[in-house]
Amino acid sequence: MADSGSGRVILRPASRRDCRRLWEWRNEQAAREASFNEGYIPYKQHEHWFACRLADPNASIFIALNADGCEVGYVRFDIVGEEAEISVSIDKAKRGRGYGMAAIKIGSDHFLKTKPVQRIVAHVKRTNTSSAAVFERAGFVLRGYRQTGGIEACELVYEGKTNGRSKNGQIDRSPLVDSDDEDMREGCILFRVDAAPDIGLGHLQRCLSLAAALRDFNTDCLFLTNEEQIVHHRIKRFGFDGRTLGAIEPWGADDLTQTMAVAAAHKCGAIVVDSDYEGAGYLSQLRNAGYYVVAIEDTAPHPFPCQLVVNGDAHARQLPYQAISEDTQFLLGPEYSILRREFWEVPPRVISEHVDRILVTLGGADPYNIMPRVINVLDTLPEAFSVSVIIGPFFDNFSQVQAVAQRAQRGITLVRAPDSVRDLMMEAGLAISAGGQTLYELARVGCPTVAVRMASNQDGQLAVFEDAGFLRIVGHAENDDIVEAIGAAVRTSLADPQARAAMSVAGKRLIDGQGAVRVAQTILAERVRAQGNR
User: Tens digit of pLDDT for each residue in 472-519?
Assistant: First the structure.
């Protein structure tokens, strides 16, 4: 498709597949002449630099796409103290069309709103007046001149209108989309996901979290789920509209027919599927019907026909993912772990010598009925601490848990199906957790954890978390001695504040909380690309 030349861009986060493209842009003759390092960069050297930049929490690289979905350049930010230094490069065939200014302006506004920096700084060769003019048209002002690598440079500064803070002092978020681009605000996204006692709550919760990020990007989201009252109420509490499938076989032909009917009725251009049971055929038929299809997966059960596959699990890159289509993109690893909004920004944690509170969270259900026994074993420990217990929405043993808590000698607080859990995790000095998605939230806040294996599909991520030093695995919930193992691990952790401090640091190093935003940005950008390629 011909370039529309509108000057409008959308930015998506760079991924490993962009390595060679950036290398080509960086080594283009005009780009080298504009750089303070004009030398040719060998690919191996660039590959190492690029991998380090992607892993660096203080560095962000975004790919700019035009209205036709074509890659036109990149913009990069490097945080240094309270400032972020910006660099930008536009494809030589796409220059002179306003893409550079748009990428600078949209990227800088977004960065000020989402990162703890006060200003964006650009350094441009003093002889490069055209580049300096582009930055000035984007709102940058000249702060002065300085020597950079022995070359005189203009130093231009951009602080935006609000320094990226909302009136209440919290970090605000907005899309990396030109606010005048109405096309990018059109099109609902349908989420097809189930939750139940035998399925758990994790699939639904991460879909709600992703939908929250998409809503920040002015994108409407609709949920289609199984007929479970608890599920419907939870969707409503998070501010979304939902539909139910009725009494049909999930993920079968009737399911597919209803899903496409709902998508068509609500003009949904994209469908997100989060399940362990949908199968390649289900995804393929959605794509063949013209939808942009996203699969959120915990395993790699089959080659994927959809446009985007997301697995934010810690071990995702170890799984044998395959694609049927050449245009399938994979977002794999903990940088794409989809967490609730409350975990996007978290306060710092201080590890105390003594643990005052232990948090117990075993997921949406307690299929092995171990919660009462965990409370009992904690009550036998001699250390002084209180206990917070999260009761999932599918617990069928609440009365038993309640009775045990009432008989306990220490303070036991029962919290039923809370919408917000961050404060509970921040208040706890130690957690006992199932091995599912809650681990990523605990890692994000740096809460040292004793982990219980509830299902075989948790093995991979548990191993990665343990190898990284964030948690101790005590065994499977069905083991006869599981409660004794939990008690022993808790006593060991209570007695070793240095180990708990190391576990906290390890968890926070693994999970930065930005996965939902990254996935949302990619969905929107790739959907534009797919539309442009039709």
Answer: 999 999 999 999 999 999 999 999 999 999 999 999 999 999 999 899
| Identity of residue 512 | D
The pTM for the full model equals 0.67
The pLDDT score that the predictor gives to residue 472 is 98
Q: Which residues pair with 62 in a beta bridge?
A: 13, 75
Give the strand pairing for 71-80 and 59-65.
Answer: antiparallel
DSSP state of 196: B
CA–CA separation, 299 vs 277, rounded Å?
Answer: 11
Nearest one of 264, 432, 402, 422 to 342, comparing CA atoms: 422
Please, what are the domains in the chain? 10-158 (3.40.630.30), 186-341+513-532 (3.40.50.11190), 348-510 (3.40.50.2000)
Cβ-count burial of 55 within 10 angstroms (0-12 exposed, 13-18 middle, 19+ buried)? exposed
Q: Is 138 exposed, middle or buried (0-12, 13-18, 19+ CB in 10 A)?
A: buried
Angle at the Cα of 64 from the Cα atoms of 44 and 28, rounded to 5 degrees: 45
Q: Which residues of the chain have a pLDDT value below 50?
A: 1-5, 162-186
Instruction: Please tell me the predicted confidence (pLDDT) of residue 534.
Output: 54
Of 342, 272, 340, 355, nearest to 524 by C-alpha is 272
Sheet containing 471-476: order of strands? 412-416, 386-391, 357-361, 430-434, 449-453, 471-476
Are 489 and 481 within 8 A, CB to CB? no
pLDDT at 7: 60
> What pLDDT, on a 0 to 100 scale, did the predictor assign at position 3?
46
As given in the structure block, the two tokens for residue 184 are 């990018």
Token pair belonging to 71: 């890659």
Q: What is the pLDDT of residue 529?
A: 67
Reading the block at residue 483, the tokens are 């409660």
Q: To 5 degrees, how large is the angle CA 397–CA 231–CA 456?
A: 65
Q: What is the b/e burial string over 487-515, where b = at least 16 CB atoms within 10 angstroms of the residue's CB?
A: bebbeebbeebeebbebbbbbbebbbbbb
Rg for the chain (alpha carbons), in Å?
Answer: 25
Supply the DSSP symbol for 139. T
Q: State the Cα–Cα distance between residues 462 and 452, nearest whole angstrom.
A: 9
- Residue 199: the pLDDT is 87
